[in-house]
Amino acid sequence: MRNLYYLLLFVVLTISGCKNDTKTTSANSLAPVNTVKHAKGLQIYRYNGFTVVKVTNPWPDAKKAYTYVMQKKGGILPDSLKNYTTVQVPLKAVVVTSTTHIPSLETLGVENTLVGFPGTDFISSKKTRARIDSGKVKEAGANESLNTEVMIDLAPDAVVGFSISSNNKSLNSLEKSGLKILYNGDWTEQTPLGKAEWIKFFGALYDKEDKADKIFNNIENEYKKAFALAQKATDKPTVLSGAMFQDHWYLPQGGSWAALFLKDAKADYLWADSKGTGSLNLSFETVLDKAENADYWIGPSQFTTFKQMVDANPHYAQFKAFKTKNVYSYSSKKGATDGLIYYELAPNRPDLVLKDLIYIFHPELLPDYELHFFEKLK
User: What integer pLDDT is reported at residue 32 of this predicted model?
Assistant: First the structure.
């Protein structure tokens, strides 16, 4: 079941901004400015005493956008906003539902407000695991079936949820019970910086917008510096990704988050021209025909050793990357309860992912670098 969870999470991460200058606006501004630059499904407008957050793509092909008002102490709301979900900020207690939300809380220094999470075993962070082990973060069920009694007893100021469609009975039920549900669409973003910019969503929830801006700007600058460094490489190695699952080989489509990392690291991902932002579902023969001589193999599903790979499918040994031992996985680096660090932290730190890949493909560009997420198979 855990392998199936990670496969589904891999697909989610590979699924699928407005570019505006960052400014803080006053309540009487006639033209408030969206402070989000890369994330396409998020808009944030700052006023004197409150912030308006719009989540325009909570799930793929969403027909409905959500508007949330973050009201600061003493902030006065205009009548035009009073029909929207309003949250008093900063939050004192929160339940989040994706491991990708954990790094944002910790980076902003508000992890102590987390009171519940569905599937606590999937959390890798040592800091939050310590709070789970001490009983300060309660098990809240599963994302699609949150424990109603536990959630109501926790009485969080807000529940930051995610859903794959509008039909999330669990969140809808909790909302009817009086809890404030805020949809987070970070997982639908198609670009590395687009995902990372959702820290600004949490910045608004905790009245730490300036701090969130600073954190993201640093990540953005580091990513751009790494990208510029990669362009200095004199070669462009070919790359294969993914692995077999129940007679099908799953690998990222050309417009996906994972594929864009490979492009920015100046690698030739062999399916870069494929259309879409999700995952391709191919036969083994199709993949072998195209990628038998690929220089590198990145992200071979759950495998962490070459023995595991050939035990599962002896034909993996036919690939050049397997023969030359140029296979790298993020599945070997786990938290105390086997949660994958990559799935939790990578969306928030694309600069580290890009540097990892640059080191793998072009080690001469980062001679003293140590891999953060990936590891060569043993």
Answer: 80
pLDDT of residue 16: 39
pTM above 0.85, yes or no: yes
Cβ density class 217-256: b for 16+ within 10 Å, e for less: eebbebbeebbebbeebeeebbbbbbbbbeeebbbbbbbb
The encoded tokens of residue 136 equal 């300060």
Mean pLDDT computed over 153-168? 93
Confidence band of 166 (pLDDT split at 50, 70, 90): confident
Which phi and psi angles does 258 have, rounded to 5°? -65, -40
pLDDT, residue 7, reads 46
Write the CA distances from 127 to 102, 106, 109, 346, 349, integer angstroms. Answer: 10, 8, 11, 17, 17
d(CA 132, CA 180): 23
Report whether 240 contacts 336 (CB < 8 A): no
Which amino acid would we find at residue 38? H
Of the pLDDT bands very low, low, confident and very high (cuts 50, 70, 90), residue 31 is: low
Distance between CA atoms of residues 323 and 269, nearest Å: 19
Share of the chain above pLDDT 90, in %: 87
